[in-house]
Structure formats: structure tokens, C-alpha cells
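User: My instructor asked us to take a sequence, write out its structure as C-alpha cells, and then describe one feature of it. I'm not sure where to start. Here is the sequence I was given:
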Amino acid sequence: MNNGWYVVIGAAIGFFGAIVAALLNNRENAKRLDKQIQHDARRHELQLDHDAEQQRLDRERTLQREIYIGVVEALAKWQEYLINFADPDISNHEHRQILQGASQQISKAYLIGTSDTLKSLDSTNLFFNENGLALAQKRLEVTLASQMIAQLEIELRETRERIDQLISAAQIVKDDKANLDIFLSSFQSDQLKAQQLQTSLNQSRIERDLLNADILKEASRIANEFAIVSFDALLSARRELGLDLTASLEKELRESVTNTALRISNNVRDWVEVLSTKYMAEDSSSKQNSDSH
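Assistant: Let's start with the prediction itself. The C-alpha cells for your sequence are:
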């Protein structure tokens, strides 16, 4: 009897112990599971933060790339604007249209640019504004000269038309000496005026050609100097985009840009000097013919 009771008690204790062990094991498993869940949640949260940061960086790089591409386009517009001062066939409206959007593109760089980039852009901007104003003044001189030429052409045409009318009228009154003398006096006066207008017109055209030659030389020089000045801004933009150059390649490119700009400027200057010499010779010849008349 007692042995049977001990067996029952032992079995109960073993069963209870198994239950306790199972409960403890389940509790440990639950703790491990909770830690795993928390760890996974934390890792997921970190991944989301990383992804968000990466997306932010991607957006910034995309914005940066778009802005600096705009800066390069704006600098190209500025250089085109400077060189086109020498084009006599482009209207003032068409000339101003070249700059459309350039200022806005440059301004955006001031939102994200580093100190070096902004200093380079400031120097380029100052060079463009000062030299653009100087070329605009020269272009105004050409415009005024062209207006004077147009006015002289009108006066000369009207004078010649009046001379033709006098000749026709003189044929009608050729037998009337009194009227014929009046027509002859008017004819001689208009003939002299026509000669003077033609001389002034010739000299004005030569002066305008000299002004055009001068603005061609200056526009070429300034546009090529602008290429040299703006090179630092372009390099700074490349650095900010992670497209830095080696020191040797940067030196090679800088020398290439400088030498090309100077060669073009010198070639244009030599050509303009030959052209100016020709115009001045024509001007001298025109004045001598005027004096002989």
C-alpha cells in the first residue's frame, strides 16, 4: 500500500515537474521570440531609415546634377551672347533672347553651391556684366552710325529724285531763258548737295565698318577670355558632382582652353587690323576725292 502511494506521489511529482519544465521552456522561448521580434523590428526600422536617407541623398544628387547642368548651359549662353555682339545681322531682340533663363539657372546654384563654386560664379558673373556693358556701348555706336547712314541715304535719294525732276522740267522750258536759269541754279545747288551727301555717306559707311571691325575684335577677345574665366566655375561644378579631375588632367585642360582662346583671339585681331587698314585707306581716298570736287 505504502509502495503504491509512493509510486503515485512520484508520478505526480514527475508530472508536475514536467509541467513546470515545459512552462519554463515556453517562457524562455517566448522571451527569445520577443527579443527576435524586437530585433527584427529594429532592423526593419533601421532599414527604413537607411532607405529614406538613401532616397534623400539620391534626390539631392539628382537636384544637384540638374542645377549644375543648368549652370553649364547658362555659361554657354553667356559666351554666345558675348560673341554675338559682333553679328551685325542679329536684332537686339534676338540678341537678348540668347540670355533667356540664364540668370535663373545661375541663381539656383547659390542654393547648394560650396564656397569655392560660388566665388568662381561671382567672378564669372562680374566679368560678364562689366564686359557685356562695354560691348553694348560699342553696339550702340554701331546702331547710331547705321541710323545716320539710313538718314543720309534717304536725303541722297530725295535729292537725286529732285535733280531728275529738274532735268525733266528743264527740257520743257528750255526755250524760256529766265526759267531755265532758275532750273539751272536749283540743279547746280542740288547737284552739289548730292555730292556732299554722297561723300558723307561714304565716310559714314567706312566709319561704321571700322566700328563693326572693332566690336568684332573686342567681342572675340572678351568671349575667349570668358571661356578662361568660367573654367574655374565649371571645375567646381564637376567637383560637387563627384567628377573631380586629376591635377595633371586639370592642368592640361586649362592650358588647352587658354591656348585655344588666345589663338582664336589673336587670329581675329590680326584679321581685323588688316580690315581696318583697308577701311582707313578707303576713307582717305574718299576724302581726297571730296577735296578734289
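For the description part of your assignment, you could build on this observation: The chain has seven helices and no strands. Try explaining in your own words what that tells you about the chain.
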